[in-house]
Amino acid sequence: MHFPKELTTVAPLSKVLTLIMFISLPIIGFFLGMKYQTFLNRNTAQSMPEIMPSYQPSLIPSPTISSNSSLQATQLCKDIITTKAIIPDNIKNSSFVYRSVDKISGKEELLLKQTIGSPSQLLLSAKAISDFSFDGTKVAYMDSAPTIFIYDISSQKANSVQLHGKKGGDQFEFVGAWSPDGNYISVARPQAPPGSEDLYKVPEGYFVATISGIHFWMNNNMLIEGYYPVFSNAFRPWGGGEASGFEKKIIPSGDTTILFSPTETVDYSLITADQSNIYYSRKVVNDPKDWDSYPEKAQITFWKCNLNCSNPVQIDEKDIPNSEEKRERNKEIIESHLPNTFSKDQYSNQIGTIDYCPSDENWVLFDLRCETKNNNNRYTSTIAIVNLQDFDHTLQIIGEGRDPHWIKVTHTDGSTGSP
Fold first, then answer.
1. What are the distances in angstroms from CA 83 to CA 212, 351, 372?
2. Strand partners, 368
3. In the chain, N or C terminus with fewer CB closer than 10 Å?
4. What is the pTM of this model?
């Protein structure tokens, strides 16, 4: 069949139109596809719970968390609230920080309440957060070793510190405790001997020494630590006859002096220490095999000595000063004053952290960890406030969380206290 020439000849205009379509159609298709994906994402986001973005170490602005969520978390402890608490303005307007755990990411969180009744403000979220510094103004935290961050609670700013100098690597699992002056901090390594921590200088970040997890700072440059030599009898029960002694360590040199070293029949356990004295127990058995029946066959006595452990003196157990003794006593007092409707037959409860208001130690923050006895419903800790001299009119739930600490700031004269 013969077609007319005008039907078989490609005109210049057709070539131009074909070229335009060849270039433009993929671009138009890509643009429409992006629009469609954006539409799908928007609908998906509306149906999903909100997930907090991963924490950035340099983050300074802090988002606000609604306090309404604390109501659901405190339902189990609701029986504590028997009356509207009477809290004076100077206490009500005080600030405090506390910890929590993000239920989605599992990360630890540090949160701030500017006043007792204000919404919570997220300060930071990290894999691990240290204890509070001795003066209560700082914490350290980490997401991945060997970097930690020193966070000033008052300024809400963090400075990074690169840890280095540890033979075998500077990998660690969490940050632990501070020295009294805040110049050293300990971290725990996954490969470390049991019960040991590595001490680093901050903010310089260099390794100083390996220390025992059981230690007490005597001053800024000396600590007393427990240690565990190896004996032929490897079956001593933990908590008694575990072949422990204790030693004095100078920081930063790491020079160590053994103060008491155990034998197979005599064991020493470090209890506590202050700036002048060391307090410890001495456990004695007649035969190494008697450790298998500890404590029935052990004679236990209590002692104190000076920093060199010369002329030790035997004392009664009740004469051992313990910084936790006051807190433990007040924990018992708080539990005994919980309302009768808070039935111990139905609920299991435990008082955790107690922190005393810097301006008035009668006022305390504490966390109450409570759950049903049958464990069908478990709730995170609940923070409450009370005046130890007036339980009936001051006991009040604040919200969900644990480990509350009143904010302390460093004043121009070097002292610390309330803002």
1. 47, 21, 23
2. 351, 382
3. N
4. 0.67
